[in-house]
Amino acid sequence: MLRLFGLLTGEVQLLRIGQTTWEKNHSRHKEGGCLVNDKMKSDYFSWLIVVGIVVLFIEIAFFNSGVIFSLLVPIGMVYIGRKRMPRSSGKWLFWLGLIFLLITVFNMMTLKFFLLAFLIHLLIQFAQSKKEPKQIKPELKEPGISLQKETMIKKDPLFSNIFVGQQKTPEQVYEWNDINIQTGIGNTIVDLSYTVIPKGETVIFIRNFIGNVKVLIPYDVEVSVNHSSIAGAAKILEYEESKLFSQSLQLQTPGYEKAGQRVKIFTSLIIGDIEVKRV
Known about the structure:
It contains four helices and nine strands. With about 280 residues, it is of the alpha/beta class. The chain folds into two domains: about 130 residues, no CATH class; about 110 residues, no CATH class. A hairpin with a 2-residue loop joins β6 and β7. α2 packs antiparallel against α3. The longest helix is centred in the N-terminal third of the chain and has 62 residues. It is globular.
């Protein structure tokens, strides 16, 4: 009996060791699978970019050699037209160039390839989500302290998100609210001389596709500017850059960190100029 009991105890211990070993291997397999999936995703996007460049080269070399000319001409028309605005000739050049540019891009075989690749990617993601749906398990925690409901105050913004058009702050006294907008085509002018800037840090955040940004700052207010642009120019107080091409600028006045009133400006433009000056 003792011998039989010893054999049974040994078998149970072997089963426990086997189960522990299987659990460790299973967890390692999961971690390895995650790493493999991340690597496959990275390789997928890398190959997509490489194949896209190859398709663009083949399109230019064999099928549509005039696509470079078809792109450069409307880009030149948009650039010259923007420089000549607001004259009527500048507006005509700008809008015709923009229309021709959109027509050329939409007719390119490379764009159709990327759209097809994006559609296939969405289908693959949808199929994988059906096979391995994500499970979300909420964590319920009992509140230790009963909190009262907070009342939120809604304020009217100074600007709104628009596709085409110019926006400007009022030319009379107005109440200040921080600005956070994104626009398509048009200029934005912010004049801080007609408002009372609150104590602390005031934020202006403007993202624009094509157009200029102009900010007028009172003399007793310190300023910080974080600007990025694909093509354009910058004139920020005493600093001036006549040509910006795919650059970022970070500038601030010497007393910004210790100032009681300070304005932080973030701008991101595809094509356009920024101007910040004292009034």
